[in-house]
TrEMBL record:
<protein>
    <recommendedName>
        <fullName>Aminotransferase class I/classII large domain-containing protein</fullName>
    </recommendedName>
</protein>
<dbReference type="InterPro" id="IPR015424">
    <property type="entry name" value="PyrdxlP-dep_Trfase"/>
</dbReference>
<dbReference type="InterPro" id="IPR015422">
    <property type="entry name" value="PyrdxlP-dep_Trfase_small"/>
</dbReference>
<dbReference type="InterPro" id="IPR015421">
    <property type="entry name" value="PyrdxlP-dep_Trfase_major"/>
</dbReference>
<dbReference type="InterPro" id="IPR004839">
    <property type="entry name" value="Aminotransferase_I/II_large"/>
</dbReference>
<dbReference type="GO" id="GO:0030170">
    <property type="term" value="F:pyridoxal phosphate binding"/>
</dbReference>
<dbReference type="GO" id="GO:0008483">
    <property type="term" value="F:transaminase activity"/>
</dbReference>
<dbReference type="InterPro" id="IPR050478">
    <property type="entry name" value="Ethylene_sulfur-biosynth"/>
</dbReference>
<dbReference type="InterPro" id="IPR004838">
    <property type="entry name" value="NHTrfase_class1_PyrdxlP-BS"/>
</dbReference>
<keyword id="KW-0663">Pyridoxal phosphate</keyword>
<feature type="domain" description="Aminotransferase class I/classII large">
    <location>
        <begin position="92"/>
        <end position="467"/>
    </location>
</feature>
<dbReference type="GO" id="GO:0006520">
    <property type="term" value="P:amino acid metabolic process"/>
</dbReference>
<comment type="similarity">
    <text>Belongs to the class-I pyridoxal-phosphate-dependent aminotransferase family.</text>
</comment>
<dbReference type="Pfam" id="PF00155">
    <property type="entry name" value="Aminotran_1_2"/>
</dbReference>
């Protein structure tokens, strides 16, 4: 089969993507970096069905569908066989999509109180490009209060889009040129690569952080030295580095960067005039035991305010990923103008914004009824999964926030390799649980799984029972053939 010359990773055996271990290396300019999808499920996970020669779409659109995209592949897989207690009890339990269902009871009660006023016919027509002014004012007040900003959040510096995903894409397009690089510490939320690369054409320059060796409590240490080294190596190779993407609280580790770490990275960015895209979408998803640990970049005196941009949305902290609402806050007026100019491509619906405004404007409800329960339930669910995995001798990263168990599963792998990681994933998928591997999340070391714990407790328990059944089988196989352990 003919290959698309601009898609280096497509082979003549079909769209089976070669593995480039890009977690620790930059992709060369113009080349898409790829990650490996479990081979046993390749057919089910393949995105593209057309060939380069017969394509009826543009080369750039073709490049995007031919490139590995875990979101599309797993969305199809789960949708085809979704668990339902009554109609499909043997279906797939989804512990892979970062959704938050922990407080669905509290949220649906609150949203049911909301009365849409039919006489508000302004809702029927185009809203202001940046987002309805009253909504932006409500978000500005909300962020100022809950992120403990050290300055007034001006609603004019906020633009609302349908999700933080289009916000990240728009930012990438706006602050760098096609082929430039953004530095991203590994591991990281798998979509970041698609968000910056698919259409904006920005490459990832991965800053490798490690978690496998030594004390897990000291893993993934974010230091300026790691950034300096990666930056110098990249510049020596002639790569154009334009920005940094930071996630705090972090997906998948659940880390919260300290004030000192943030200041160090901001100073590093300022030295080289790099933009800092600060994704704080999990800002309020902090376990109750650590609730005062989160430092927003908005609390700091940033050295270059024109190059620091904060991203937040309703998908995580309020578990409303179906509403599709996210925003950017930036003091860079040209950037805000660019967002305003292109906002019409990705505007949320006015009635949705009105409902969300109702929710976040009730500060008493947020502070007294919602957050304490939410943050307690987060920690409780984390503990349930952690304890069950630790019984099997699995090391769990000491997360402080977000929805993820980041687990070192090397013990259950045939060898310490990405291939063996995929094999373990295949067995878990065969047991009808969807989770993600470390490699999907650009870990530079094999051996990790990411498990979402923010689903309802009944499904979480079924998912864990199924994962445990796989672990028990492997334990038995290892007892029968103990020599594999010495290979790790
Ligand atoms: C760190 C991070 N940023 C952004 C998003 C995307 O959120 P949205 O639903 O607002 O597009 C996610 C979703 O998993 C995420 O984990």
């Amino acid at each position: 089969m003919a290959t698309n010359p601009s898609t280096a990773a497509v082979t003549d055996t079909g769209y089976r993507l070669t593995r480039l271990n890009l977690a620790c290396q930059p992709a060369s300019s113009g080349t898409k970096s790829t990650i490996m999808i479990p081979s046993t499920t390749d057919t089910a996970l393949t995105t593209s069905t057309c060939s380069a020669t017969s394509t009826t779409i543009s080369t750039r659109a073709y490049d995007i569908i031919a490139h590995t995209n875990p979101t599309v592949k797993f969305d199809r897989l789960v949708a085809a066989d979704r668990y339902d207690k009554q109609s499909n009890p043997n279906g797939i339990i989804n512990l892979g999509t970062a959704e938050n269902k922990l407080c669905a009871d509290i949220l649906s009660k609150k949203l049911a109180e909301f009365q849409h006023k039919p006489e508000e016919e302004t809702l029927n027509y185009y809203p202001q490009l940046k987002g309805a002014p009253s909504f932006r004012s409500a978000v500005a007040k909300f962020i100022e209060l809950h992120f403990k900003a050290n300055h007034r959040i001006d609603p004019e510096n906020l633009v609302v889009l349908c999700g933080t995903t289009p916000v990240l894409e728009t930012l990438s397009f706006a602050v760098a040129e096609h082929g430039d690089y953004f530095m991203i510490p590994t591991p990281y939320y798998h979509r970041i690569y698609n968000d910056i690369n698919d259409r904006a054409g920005i490459n990832s320059l991965n800053v490798p952080l490690y978690g496998m060796e030594g004390d897990i409590n000291k893993a993934y240490d974010l230091t300026r030295a790691a950034f300096e080294k990666t930056y110098e190596d990249a510049v020596t190779k002639g790569l154009k580095v334009k920005g940094i993407v930071l996630l705090s609280p972090h997906n998948p580790t659940g880390d919260i960067y300290t004030k000192d770490q943030l200041v160090d990275i901001l100073n590093f960015a300022n030295k080289y005039k790099l933009h800092v895209i600060m994704d704080e979408i999990y800002a309020l998803s902090v376990f109750d035991t650590y609730k005062d640990n989160f430092t927003s970049v908005l609390q700091l005196d940033v050295p270059d305010p024109d190059r620091v941009h904060v991203v937040w949305g309703f998908s995580k902290d309020f578990g409303l990923s179906g509403y599709r609402v996210g925003c950017v806050y930036s003091r860079n007026q040209q950037l805000i103008k660019y967002f305003e100019t292109t906002a019409i491509f990705a505007m949320p619906a006015a009635p949705i914004l009105q409902r969300l405004e109702y929710l976040i404007s009730d500060t008493d409800w947020v502070e007294k009824d919602y957050l304490p329960v939410y943050q307690r339930r987060l920690r409780e669910s984390f503990d349930v999964v952690k304890q069950r995995l630790e019984k099997h001798g699995i090391r769990v990263y000491p997360s402080q926030a977000s929805f993820f168990i980041w687990a070192d599963v090397t013990k259950y792998m045939r060898e310490r390799s990405f291939k063996a990681e995929e094999e373990l994933l295949s067995r878990i998928l065969q047991a009808k649980v969807y989770v993600m591997t470390g490699q999907h999340n650009y870990s530079c070391e094999p051996g990790w799984l990411r498990i979402i714990f923010s689903v309802n407790r009944e499904q979480l328990n079924i998912g864990l029972d199924r994962i445990e059944s796989v672990l028990f089988k492997i334990e038995k196989e290892q007892a029968d053939k103990p020599e594999h352990i010495s290979r790790l």
